[in-house]
Structure to design on (101 residues):
């Protein structure tokens, strides 16, 4: 008989090690944006920034490292300006597409 595990006992998933190319980052952000959840977007940008190096991204975005960590927490609601600056530092941009009903 196999041993049952509780969900709470499973390790947290960290996407950062898998975000190793622009294509992977773009696909990840596209999926996240479809969820229409600002806090999830902030957390995803944090995953990508950690994959790229938080200090370097903070410097490129013109934000202190501490402020970047705070803005990209899972429970945060960063301003659009912050999201835009972080995206630019990551080398990606948000794109608008028409929604077909």
């Amino acid at each position: 008989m196999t041993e049952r595990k509780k969900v709470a006992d499973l390790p947290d998933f960290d996407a950062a090690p898998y975000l190793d190319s622009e294509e992977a980052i773009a696909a990840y952000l596209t999926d996240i944006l479809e969820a229409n959840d600002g806090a999830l977007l902030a957390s995803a940008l944090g995953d990508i920034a950690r994959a790229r190096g938080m200090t370097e991204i903070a410097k490129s975005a013109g934000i202190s490292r501490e402020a970047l960590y705070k803005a990209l927490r899972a429970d945060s609601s960063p301003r659009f300006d912050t999201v835009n600056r972080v995206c630019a530092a990551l080398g990606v941009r948000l794109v608008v597409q028409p929604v077909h009903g």
Observations:
- The first helix runs from residue 22 to 34.
- Helices lie at 22-34, 38-52, 54-61, 65-71, 80-90.
